[in-house]
Design brief:
Two copies of one chain form a homodimer.
Chain A lengths: L3 E5 L5 E3 L14 E5 L49 E3 L11 E6 L9 H14 L4 E5 L3 H13 L2 E7 L4 H9 L3 E5 L3 H15 L2 E2 L8 H15 L7 E5 L4 H15 L8 E7 L4 H7 L26 H11 L2 E5 L1 H12 L7 H15 L8 E6 L7
Parallel strand pairs in A: 5-13, 6-7, 6-9, 7-8, 10-11, 10-13, 11-12
Antiparallel strand pairs in A: 1-2, 1-3, 4-5
Chain lengths: 384, 384
């Protein structure tokens, strides 16, 4: 079981993990959980993996020593995590030079990687007393919140643009989510959700508006490293919208390294759309934060994030890991989607984006022969 | 690694596991795999579970000593299996008297339990030399075959009624399946598929037309028993169309018992629709086979099977396990679907049917206070 404090992503503030924590009380930036670690002399070696990490039970909560759950507390779980890491062979061309793998997050309870984050955030908030949740989303996060709120027996209020596909609305309704259709784009939904939270006391689980979605997301990387025998992959290629999973992966790697539980290091590559590439632009200009992207246009809904709250954390992860950022056009993403489907992997366009990016990164020599490279398939093809 | 023979479901024929085996060469009934078992003196005890069953790797193929894979052979896998067994609490009424659990098969690679069977069937047939597969289906089996054929780099020919929902066709297409739209019902698709197989040599993986889909399906029950600490649940409630999973569960329990690897026994209950209940009718009339149901009508596509090839095996499983069969109307199934969704479980109508059936079985005293009862959620809500 874990004990932890919260730290501002800037590093300028640190304090106790108060119930229903949101953002930094001093600057409003995202908070990160910091767990108590053994001191240097007590540092465990890679062969001293905690027993509960390797037991037969499925799911991300077996990593509980590195998750925000205290002794005796139970998680709100639908069996999220323990998704497969599938080898990708025979794709042809440059890719055959790599040890290419794909983390198939489509096999989560609601079909996307959002489940990990919402399982963690809903768990912590319910334990801290929340009975009503709110999120602005037109996609997978809406569905995941509806599912985990249902599982916990609490209420999900979902602010969703009125032009959201009927399938997304139907999926929220399946779980009994309270849907509020908003005339406007996702940013208007965000404002309405924040106002609703302020007015009613509902807990807002918008991306990086609370510290624990990132804790759930980091278990993707814990599982990857576990599957590789506690060795870090040489590189990961991550489709980057809000970037919670990328930040979480970087955090996971750091926490394992602190404990001496991982060999090697991982270069992290962010993939965005040429139609919305704030992180790629900021990266190429060596900025520490990403100015908002004007007139964002891409079919990849998950990548249509003009301004990520965690921009500085994403850029720091790319920089400190020795990675980078790359923009892919929609046509190449769709070709990648098709190519992955033809290898049996149910994937949405964001998954295809990572394959297209990997091909490009090999061609320019950034990914090198024999390297172990992990793509992230963030959702299955059913969810759109 | 396993060695096995094939035996007719009637028990009247037994022979070697010849490549690309289909049905009994003498009577045309389904074949079952029979593995070499240790003799009585060498019988393992429940604490002697094979090491590979309990390793960290995910998925059904870790049970390879009881699956049709020989030394050095590799499975065609997308990470199927290791789905969660979720507790269902607080449903109210009679159900609170049970230890109720649901096996969530919606978290498989293509979103349904069909993945297990097709992974096993495609694996064995590809190893035996098949390069073309054929199946008649308007649903999950079509999609699963398309996915596993893609994974193996071989071709799936899918005969599908022309009024099949566009979503199913799109999903087959995502995996590159060759789709043949047939003017007619599923039985006409079956005839066309059989003729295609005969004409071209494509391997037909229709339900119980080959012996290995059932082998994949039986891993559901292996996982359930494992999750319960190698103790059999008191009862399972299974939505029964073709019944492969029910037969597989019964087979799994028998094979574990032969090896001394399970404590206790399980009563098996088949759930059908009041609009198509051949097994329930045959059960109530104490028949050993089920006459075809005329004019089958139900919204539960998976249960619209008027004549199951494995009828005699299903009825034998119910009888020898001390279980039974129950028919549920569509309205009650849909209420069950909604109720499961409200507990966070993404489910199609067949999943809801099991909840409705369990409620009924408790009410009449067939399921009793304190019993451990497992429902099967065969697919997630996205797949329809």
């Amino acid at each position: 079981m874990a004990e932890w404090e919260l730290e501002c992503g800037t590093g300028d503030w640190r304090g106790p993990a108060s119930p229903l924590a949101t953002v930094c009380p001093e600057c409003g930036k995202p908070l990160l959980a910091r767990y108590a670690t053994p001191d240097g002399s007590a540092r465990t070696r890679p062969d001293q993996i905690p027993d509960e990490w390797t037991d037969r039970s499925r799911g991300m909560w077996r990593f509980r020593g590195m998750l925000p759950l205290r002794e005796g507390e139970e998680a709100v779980s639908l069996g999220e995590g323990s998704t497969p890491l599938l080898p990708l062979d025979g794709l042809g061309g440059e890719l055959d030079a790599l040890e290419l793998l794909i983390k198939d997050e489509g096999q989560n309870p609601t079909g996307s990687f959002k489940d990990r984050g919402l399982s963690a955030a809903v768990t912590r908030a319910v334990l801290d007393g929340a009975t009503d949740f709110v999120v602005p989303s037109a996609g997978n996060a809406a569905v995941a919140l509806a599912a985990y709120a249902a599982r916990a027996g609490v209420t999900a209020h979902i602010f969703i643009p009125s032009d959201t596909p009927a399938a997304v609305v139907a999926r929220c309704d399946h779980y009994g989510g309270e849907i509020v259709l908003v005339d406007g784009l996702i940013d208007e939904c965000g404002r309405r959700a924040a106002a609703f939270a302020h007015r009613t006391g509902a807990f807002n689980v918008s991306t990086l508006k609370e510290p624990y979605r990132i804790e759930g997301k980091k278990t993707m990387m814990l599982e990857i490293i576990e599957a590789l025998g506690w060795r870090a992959p040489d590189a990961i290629v991550y489709p980057t919208g809000g970037g919670t999973g990328l930040i979480g992966s970087w955090k996971a790697l750091g926490e394992l390294a602190e404990r001496g539980l991982v060999k090697g290091s991982t270069r992290m590559y962010a993939v965005q759309s040429t139609g919305c590439a704030p992180i790629v632009r900021a990266w190429s200009e060596s900025l520490e934060a990403a100015p908002p992207w004007e007139d964002a246009r891409t079919e990849a809904y998950g990548l249509r994030v003009p301004a990520a709250l965690g921009d500085f954390l994403i850029l720091r992860a790319l920089r400190s890991s020795g990675g980078g950022a790359i923009a892919i056009d929609d046509a190449s993403m769709l070709a990648g989607t098709r190519e992955l489907g033809r290898r049996g992997v149910s994937n949405a366009i964001e998954g295809g984006a990572t394959l297209a990016a990997a091909r490009r990164l090999v061609a320019v020599g950034t990914l090198r022969e024999g390297e172990t490279v992990v793509l992230f398939n963030t959702a299955n093809a059913l969810v759109y």
